[in-house]
Fold:
Amino acid sequence: QVQLVESGGGLVQAGGSLRLSCLASGTIFSIHVMAWYRQAPGKQRELVASITSGGTTNYANSVKGRFTISRDNTKNTAYLQMDSLKPEDTAVYYCNADVSARSWSRSTYWGQGTQVTVSS
Structure:
């Protein structure tokens, strides 16, 4: 079984920064794509950013130039550096990972979410 644990959320003023971390633990053979999603009240969950094991990144248009996703493969950890935060970035942020627990298996896992609140 694989667990994803997010940390780093909180309350910040508009224009401020936060850094989210996502640690994957458990039975892990390899981690393929790691991603951050967010869900605001009354809205659907949306992809914020993703990163492959080789470091290829992808961002939602709404966060390009403000957010940076990275990962440390030696620590099974992904990060989301969020700068120039806006009130519309307020949401619960979820870590997502595509993991092989064994060489022949592959499953998608979700963290429990961390709240990010940006005040105006």
In short: Residues 49 and 116 are 15 Å apart (CA to CA). The chain has a mean pLDDT of 96. The chain is about 0% helix and 60% strand. The radius of gyration is 14 Å.
